[in-house]
Design brief:
The chain is mainly α and 962 residues long. The protein contains 47 helices and five strands. It comes from Saccharopolyspora ipomoeae.
């Protein structure tokens, strides 16, 4: 017939999610054209796209050269014999004289001759008729809805394929596997078993496929969450998806966040209608089994479903098979085909109060998890049996551990409906208040406050006061928290005079440490906290309360600017705990101190762990606050992009909580990062969102706010306004006793602005104060910033260059990339004024490198402008932190990453062991890693550094360049 060149198949017109199926059909068609008969069976549940696939195949251009006979079998209760065969050959307009006598019974059943022919003769005659058609061109037979086909027609197709191995024949069948039954099912099984047959079972559309369909169908580009809703609701079924989209368009639903809820509701109705049609006509027991599976959940077994549905085990198995063929339940197990199907079944098959109670009993008696039982109990109007309280409390504890406090609150509220013991009710209300505080601290406070009047046990009372205090802080009620903690601490101190037990001492320390931490959050109480810490002897950190006390001490001392080495020691001891003793308050305070002290080797891993700890607890506001603290850490170390991303996430989460109107940390962190990115307009808008009462009393957020506001003014060129805001910030900090020079560097920033405004005596006074504070705190960042400011303010160019050169050297030994970039910029600026253009270009390019890696656009842009002014051109900026390494540092780091010891590296490079340690420490800092094991990954992802970069740039002529 045709040569092998016909084997090369051109792809069928593709559409979303069906490229694999199209490829299978194209391959089968190529085989048929090469006289290798093939059969393709397309089967699956309703709506999966079988008919569309066959329709697209029939439109294929190459089929015009073939004899194409097609039929869509009608849905008739008992189709007559050879009904599909007659429909297939009907377009040929054959008469009885055009076919063999044996074919007449099939094609013309009303003629008398039909009674005298055997089935085999009829099948053979029909085969000869098809073979005659294939004598001149390939034959393609397409049978859609083959589940309605009569058994005789299917038997002929099977007969034809078995005798057409070397004929140009392609048979394409599409059928719903849930509808095929009786003799037709057996014949179809024979067809599928043939070696020439390939079975295609179109899968549900993937999430990306759904996104493509929704995007192509709707007039507006949909948001990601809206697409997720459509994918979840439709289960990837194309027919359901298109019905859903049509319904959404008719309802005018926008494909964004506002339309998600409407899409859920409309989609549920579409899915319910689909389920209703799939269950129509089935025996009632099958619907009861579907409802039982829906009520009991995916963990139920066949026996449990049988007990719930009131049928036998055998009847459950039979019903599941029927539901499986109709794509209601999954291919295996006792569960639904997709998540939305469960809700749809419950919409279609009503579930009564008695059914819910029976389901709860069955699940409880079979030992299913408490959460599964509780889900039924909370839907009952009345809870009146003692066992229910225990189940609900267990379920609440489990959901809280899983990070779902809103569900735990729901369970605990229902416990109060059934629990009658007053001591137990107090415990339940305590749990309710504690868990509710994670979601709505304003609603939790009255519950916890009322409990304080009901408890008589001193130990229990103290734990309730601690819960109340922490909730009051989240609700921005610091004075209430401090007052309550002060009262209970006085009570415990009095008791300790007669009881010297370790347990009471630990309890006293726990309360006192919380009092110090909470009290340090407001300026009005910060002085009292300082006095109490000054009077208290240092602790070893052997217990959780001692570690929290050390963390509080480190926090307060860091704000006061005490020597950083001492502060770091306290903070590290506080963080030396086991996972079971993890405490967010201890971690936050200790991390804040390490953050100001630039203790990078401890800080970044601990900060990430702190965020993960709070995230696992499921408290949204606490999680957003921890994220904002982490953003501050990233910003402090120069990762401006990372800081902006984390802070924005924190602000978005915070905006969804009830505390959104009374918080500031998330917004000040975001605004501070936006300023360094150069987006001052958005930073200004974010700062404007803060509407917290008594905001100016906060020790941290208020001063962060003022500094960010001053930076906005500064970048906009409003220098006087920026200086006044910074001076106001300084008065507030000094009045509260906060003197750390790097917490909010108001003195150095204000000194630069004042000098530029001609107020040099004021700038000099601020620098004198800052020098004392920087020397006392003692970090490279503090000293380097002070030296940089000295250089900027100095009128004598020689002194300016000297101070700025020293500042660059000092800051290069710290993780303060942004400050180092600023120092290079200022030095380049001064060198340009002294006409040292080559030196200026060197430092300005270094500034561009650092600022670009950090994401600090304003600094990088200003430096680029000055490079051009200095007669140079702007080269390619650094793209990796590895480019920051000196040659020696990179050699040492590479050898260490390969496993060489410090001593082996020293011997190989002919340097001292101390030199190796210095280079390795610098490499850790620049690569932002904390241990040797991380070096290989950090070095491996970098691009090759250009050698002698500055010299190469200098060697290129500027002539002819723009």
């Amino acid at each position: 017939m045709r040569g092998d060149q016909q084997r090369i198949a051109e792809p069928i017109q593709p559409w979303v999610g069906r490229s694999r199926e199209c490829a299978v059909l194209a391959e089968a068609f190529a085989d048929a054209r090469a006289s290798r008969a093939r059969c393709v069976v397309v089967r699956g549940p309703s709506g999966v796209g079988k008919s569309r696939l066959l329709s697209e195949f029939r439109r294929r251009e190459q089929l015009r050269a073939c004899a194409v006979l097609q039929v869509r079998c009608p849905d008739t209760p008992r189709p007559p014999r050879y009904d599909a065969v007659r429909r297939i050959f009907e377009p040929l307009e054959l008469g009885a004289d055009d076919v063999a006598d044996s074919a007449v019974p099939a094609l013309f059943p009303d003629l008398p001759v039909a009674r005298n022919s055997s089935d085999y003769a009829t099948l053979s005659a029909l085969h000869s008729l098809a073979a005659n058609l294939m004598a001149t061109r390939p034959l393609v037979l397409v049978v859609d809805d083959a589940h309605h086909c009569d058994a005789a027609s299917l038997r002929w197709l099977d007969f034809l394929l078995r005798r057409a191995a070397d004929l140009p024949l392609l048979v394409v069948l599409g059928y719903r596997c849930d509808e095929l039954d009786g003799p037709a099912r057996a014949t179809m099984s024979d067809l599928v078993a043939q070696r020439t047959t390939t079975v295609i079972e179109p899968a549900p559309l993937s999430r990306d496929d759904v996104a493509e369909v929704v995007t192509a169908t709707l007039p507006v580009v949909p948001e990601s969450d809206f697409v997720d809703t459509c994918a979840r609701t439709s289960g990837g079924n194309p027919a359901l998806l298109h019905r859903l989209i049509d319904a959404l368009v008719k309802a005018g639903v926008r494909p964004d966040e506002t339309g998600e809820l409407s899409a859920e509701q409309i989609g549920r109705g579409v899915l319910a209608a689909s389920v209703r049609s799939r269950l129509a006509g089935l025996p009632r027991r099958i619907a009861r089994v579907a409802a039982a599976v829906a009520v009991l959940g995916p963990g139920a077994g066949v026996e449990t479903v049988a007990a719930m549905a009131g049928v036998t085990r055998w009847q459950v198995t039979e019903a599941l098979e029927v539901l499986r063929r109709r794509d209601v339940v999954a291919e295996s197990g006792v569960d639904f085909a997709h998540d939305g199907m469960r809700a749809a079944v419950l919409d279609v098959v009503p579930v009564s109060e008695e059914d819910r109670l029976r389901a709860a009993r069955i699940l409880n008696d079979t030992g299913r998890p408490a959460i599964e039982v509780a889900e039924h109990l909370v839907q009952l109007a009345e809870l009146n049996q003692p066992w229910m309280a225990g189940v609900l409390r267990d379920a609440a504890a489990l959901t809280e551990q899983q990070g779902a406090p809103e569900i735990a609150v729901r369970y605990l509220r229902r416990v109060l409906d059934v629990e009658t013991s007053e001591p137990q009710r107090i415990r339940v209300r305590a749990d309710l208040g504690r868990v509710l505080a994670q979601l709505d601290p304003y609603a939790a406070l009255p519950i916890l406050r009322k409990l304080l009047d009901q408890v008589t046990d001193p130990t229990v009372y103290v734990s309730f006061v601690l819960n109340f205090a922490m909730t009051a802080v989240t609700a921005q009620r610091h004075p209430e928290a401090v007052r309550a903690l002060g009262e209970v601490l006085a009570m415990l101190t009095l008791k300790a005079r007669h009881d010297a037990s370790a347990a009471l001492r630990e309890l006293c320390l726990s309360v006192e440490s919380m009092l110090l931490i909470i009290g340090s959050g407001e300026k009005s109480t910060f002085g009292l906290v300082q006095d109490r810490i000054a009077e208290r002897p240092l602790l070893s950190g052997g217990t959780p309360a001692e570690r929290r006390m050390l963390a509080a001490t480190a926090f307060v001392q860091s704000l006061r600017g005490e020597p950083s080495a001492q502060v770091v020691q306290h903070a590290r001891t506080a963080l030396n705990f086991q996972a079971s003793d993890a405490d967010p308050w201890t971690e936050r305070c200790a991390l804040f101190a390490l953050h100001l002290a630039d203790a990078t080797e401890d800080l970044l891993p601990a900060a990430q762990r702190a965020v993960e700890l709070v995230e696992s607890m499921g408290a949204r506001w606490d999680y957003s606050y921890s994220l904002s603290c982490y953003a501050r850490v990233l910003l402090h170390f120069g990762d401006v992009r990372g800081a902006a991303e984390e802070a924005r996430t924190a602000a978005d989460i915070c905006a969804q909580t009830v505390c959104a109107d009374s918080t500031a940390a998330q917004y000040t962190a975001w605004a501070s990062a936006l300023v360094e990115l150069g987006d001052v307009d958005q930073a200004d808008e974010v700062l404007g969102r803060i509407e917290r009462d008594w905001f100016d009393e906060a020790t941290l957020e208020w001063h962060y706010f003022l500094h960010a506001r001053a930076r906005v003014h500064w970048i906009r060129g409003e220098f006087t306004a920026a200086a006044e805001v910074l001076l106001g910030c300084g008065r507030s900090m000094t009045g509260a006793g906060i003197t750390n020079p790097v917490f909010v560097p108001w003195r150095t920033d204000a000194a630069i602005l004042l000098a530029g405004l001609g107020r040099r005596s004021e700038a000099a006074d601020l620098l004198d104060q800052d020098e004392e504070a920087a020397q006392r705190w003692g970090t490279a960042r503090a000293l380097g910033r002070h030296l940089m400011t000295r250089g900027v303010v100095a009128e004598d160019p020689v002194r300016a260059v000297g101070s700025l050169t020293e500042a660059v050297e000092v800051l290069s030994g710290s993780p303060a990339w942004l400050d180092e970039a600023r120092a290079h910029f200022r030095l380049g600026e001064v060198l340009l004024r002294t006409e040292d253009e080559r030196g200026a270009r060197k430092h300005l390019r270094r500034c561009i490198d650092l600022a670009t890696l950090c994401g600090a656009k304003p600094i990088a842009d200003h430096a680029r402008t000055l490079v051009v002014t200095a007669g140079g051109r702007v080269g390619q900026p650094l793209r990796s932190p590895v480019d920051l390494l000196t040659g020696s540092e990179r050699r040492v780091a590479t050898m260490a990453a390969a496993g060489a010891s410090n001593r082996a590296i020293a011997e190989a490079l002919f340097v001292t062991l101390r030199t190796v340690e210095t280079h390795l420490t610098n490499a850790y800092r620049k690569l932002r890693v904390s241990k040797r094991a991380d070096l290989a990954a950090a070095l491996g992802g970098a691009r090759t550094r250009r050698q002698h970069r500055d010299d190469e740039v200098e060697a290129e002529p500027l002539a002819g360049r723009p």
